[in-house]
């Protein structure tokens, strides 16, 4: 599965990361429309703690206007392409940045089911909470509803240039488990450079690596460029 927009850490174009809190805080005060594009590379592609591909190259495009946003994000996966589409509205209220939107994740070559979800989130100070409530196209599965909630803490409050995130799957479907990540991002000569260390638990949904991607620690190096 994939990401919304540029993520909280723009260097991680496809790690889910989490949802568009960065867009929420920026678009809410935007008065003019803008279009941007991004390209990226990940040494491994994990999304919400589930392994997607041994590596991935991505491309995305975003449109923002007065708090409204829409965009698309494409990446190569182990079999075929992932193509995502999202739209929503970001705003500020009561001293918090918020957003409400929808996302669809689709795949070529029968790599995975199609996923569609409603997303919302709130950020205040160093803490950001994101939630997704969705369904997937599982023709042989009765319960296809799922939820994913993440809580992110900007460790800049204690002098560390990193973000600590805990993510939790829930719902009636086979999507389940928890994941914890520590992210570092910087910019070198206009290129976003990121490093993520993650750990999922023994209940996480198996990805493309099967059992070897469950109850494991993983590391991801990423490069990204926006224009």
What does this structure look like?
By secondary structure, the chain is mainly beta. It has one helix at residues 21-27; strands at 34-42, 45-47, 50-53, 56-65, 68-76, 81-93, 96-107, 115-124, 127-136, 145-154, 162-170, 178-188, 191-200, 217-226. The protein has a single domain (21-226), classed as monomeric porin ompg (Porin). The protein contains one helix and 14 strands. The strands form two sheets. The protein has a twelve-stranded antiparallel barrel with strand order 1-4-5-6-7-8-9-10-11-12-13-14. A two-stranded antiparallel sheet has the order 2-3. It is globular and about 45 Å long. The model is unreliable at 1-30 (pLDDT under 50).
Summarize the structure.
By secondary structure, the chain is mainly beta.
Helix/strand layout:
Elements: H1 21-27, E1 34-42, E2 45-47, E3 50-53, E4 56-65, E5 68-76, E6 81-93, E7 96-107, E8 115-124, E9 127-136, E10 145-154, E11 162-170, E12 178-188, E13 191-200, E14 217-226
Antiparallel strand pairs: 1-4, 1-14, 2-3, 4-5, 5-6, 6-7, 7-8, 8-9, 9-10, 10-11, 11-12, 12-13, 13-14
